Amino acid sequence: MFGETVLKEIDEIRVKYPDRRSALLPSLYIAQREFGWLSQEAMQCVAKALNLSESIVRGTASFYSMFKHKPVGRHLIQLCTNVSCMILGAERLVDFLGNKYGLQPDGTTEDGRLSLVVMECIGACGTAPAMLINTDFYDNLSEKRIEEILEKYK
Amino acid sequence: MISLTINEKEVTLDKPVTVLEAAKQAGIKIPTLCHHDLLKPWSGCRLCVVEVERMPRLQTACTLMAADGMVIKTESEAISNVRRGILEFLLINHPLDCPYCDKAGECELQDLVNKYGPTVGRYKEEKRKVPESHKDQIIARNTERCVMCTRCVRMCNDVQGASAISIIGRGNHSRMEPFSSESFDCEYCGNCLTVCPVGAILSRLYIHSFRPWQVDKEVGTICSYCGVGCSLVVQVRDDSIKRVIPKLGFGLNKGLLCSRGRFGYEYVNSPDRLKTPLVRKNGKLEESTWSEALSIIADKLTEIKGTSGGSAIAGIASPRCSNEDNYVLQKFMRVTCGSNNIDSLSRTGFAAAQKYFEDLLGQGITANIIDGIKNSEVVLVIGGDPTAVNPILGLSIREAARRGASIIVLGHAKGLEKFKTVQVVPPLFKEAEVLEALLVELFRAKGVRAELPFIDKEMRELSEKAAEKMDLPGFDELMKALLNSASTSIVLGMDLIQRTNGHRSLFGVAGITYLLEARLYLLSERPNEQGLIDAGCVPDMLPGGRPMNIPDFKSKFEAAWNGPIPDDDGLTLFEIIEGIKNRNIKALYVMGENPVFNLPGGPFLKDIFGNLDLLVVQDIFLTETAEIADVVLPALGWAEKSGTYTNLERRIQLQKQAVKTSRGMEDWRILSEISGRMGQKMGYLETDDIMREMAKVSPLYADLTYDEIGKGDCLWPYHGKPLRGEMNEVPPVVDAEKDYKADFYLAPEKLLFHSGTLSRKSPALMKICPEPTLKMSAASAGKLGLKEGDRVQFSTTAGSSEAPVSIDESIKDNRVFLSNNFQGSGVMDLLSFSIDEVTKAFGIEGCEVEIKKHGIKA
What number is the ipTM of this complex? Predict the structure, then answer.
């Protein structure tokens, strides 16, 4: 269930659009923020808040890959392995995350701290390899730098 | 006027339509997969491409509007190449499992590939594999076969308004799924089945049981469930019903059906059907023969008529039986038995309201075309959920909402939750006061209408009495909407009629209808509630709605029927019951009705029916009432007999025989046999004979024939002349002192998936909705510490029962609702009731109920 403040936030989004369906994507982001991922319950909450059918909510949510359709860890690492990043050792970094933290692509560490998604280009080819942790951006990555950065994400 | 050339043929159009439609009018078929007549154009499949002169590329005919001077080709080599290419793409994933696919033979994809090819596929890759879903008990979903035309999704969203399914995922992984991805949590209308062009959505009721071409016959008939009377087609093989499908573009439903109509037909073949007459011997019902059973009834009725007079006999007619059956029953009661005591359970709702409105506003006031709701500016929904009681009428309200109408719900209606504009929740059991307040405000704003002075007078008196304006959330909005509306529809459910002083609400509704010149629709649970009134199965009126107390009408019918009609006023339903209790009524003849289950106070009724010297029940099942009868006669059911039915908009329609059975006899034939044995020969051979007689004696049906009715447009007032209102004053309001302080009150609920005696013998409907639930608001559940699905025990002064809890967001007061459909746990047995002095319907209000979580001892 959404709390009062979240419902108010969705209401504020809703009045910006001519119809309820238009407010669906931003509301799904809010649900994802609240629940961590778009569970059935999260989608039901959105449907109820916008008075839309649950099925329409799921249909829309399932179209977009940037919505999370299964539970993820507290912090989500999105690491690029496209051409520039690959040439500069991104695949080594994937192995490093596996060996050091037990973190496989599309997997989550046992303590639920970290999740890893290997993603397509994030437009940082000049300073590759690059990654996103949640919404924070990091580039010029190496094993050592990743280790230091991850210290901040407990 | 638009003229264009299609395939070198000149086509002239009188209104702008798409090229696809124009070609259709010219008899030229353009292939489509995503287009369907019930849906809006979508242009997703690209199969309908055509060549248009002076247009650079091929155009999709389903979205291109026909314009003057267009020159179009619908078939050419280039077009065939494109179509073949599209089909080849579709066949990349579509499995070639036609030998065991149920759709084969009526599959649109199969037909198209047959016509355009390809004959071989060039793709070597594996087909997409998705296991068939067996999670749903009614709808079989095979995603592999799906061609992503999205017809089902658009049907569910744009027409049915249930929005229960959508396309999940993207690209090659996209698939049609309900929210849960497993079973469907929907209205089970099955309209997605109608539109699916391939075998991706099928019904488990007939899957793997026959091939579409293996049917002996298709019979176009009407549905047996509610008062809308949808047209449908019954497909028959070996005298058993294989499936029920809609007839596209025909009837008032134009190809749409609801769960009851589409999946509820199996009761006809239920093993519980009565097969032979039963006669009570030594306290037990034993199998008997027709001649014995009929003789017992004839002898006993003759004896009672001789010793106690005809008025000691009473009859209960059936809103499930045809006009002909009911006409013969009332004639049998009036002439053969010499009694005007003929009424039906419609007295508890439809007939009571209908009489009140017609007395006030004139005959035919409720005869409004259902389709007209769609064009209303305001739809006022009162006292029930139209999408559950009359689902197809409910769809018109949803369509009105899509067209921009204000949908105002007074009370609650779950099926309109996503469509309503305002919901006004009256204080508990104070609906009449709210309606009166509304009427007063409207009257103050609009003034007298000066058509019916006695109503104007009553409204003036009301407005003088009324103090200040009602303070209720949404009330002002409701007022404003009604005042600004140029076309208003009022949809009235039975909930408000069944009140201690239901007539007070009825006057409110009548007044609003009169002031706003609104269209009035009465929801009707049974298929022939209007018909039985017109056939004369009410104590005070002869067929055609002609009042008994006018001697000229009476003598006309006496001459036509060859026998005297008694002078005394007949008794209404509850007066008959009172008569049975006082032993004034000695014989009761029940045709196709189950009063012990369908009326409140079942145990009491069962008890006093013991007073009767003769209780005859004519039915298709051994109902609760039949179980205590002296003689039980097996009748024929829907699809087994022919006859006419009059729906709630007063459209007369023909229900046709589709299968033959040796199980029983038509209701009218049984009555005619008994009448003959009592010395009053009726002489009917077939139903046509009865219709001919009705057309002759009843001014409503003047000159009507089956041929004319069969065309489907036989609408009020036919050829007959309606009578104007008979009443010159409004019956005085009997006001009851009300003080409702209990925590919870029990009230009856109408379910979408059930209708009582018939639906509980339909396996499919029992799978969809297997048990009763106690519906309550989230607030009530919170107060009791209950969550969805918790089992509770509940008791009233009349009895107790148990059921799981279901939370209904649309309910906003402290009433809890239970339906009256399941054997042994109907709500009626638990209710206390009173009788409305004016309408003679029962009133259910203030029935206190105590609710406990199951297993917790008090």
Answer: 0.86
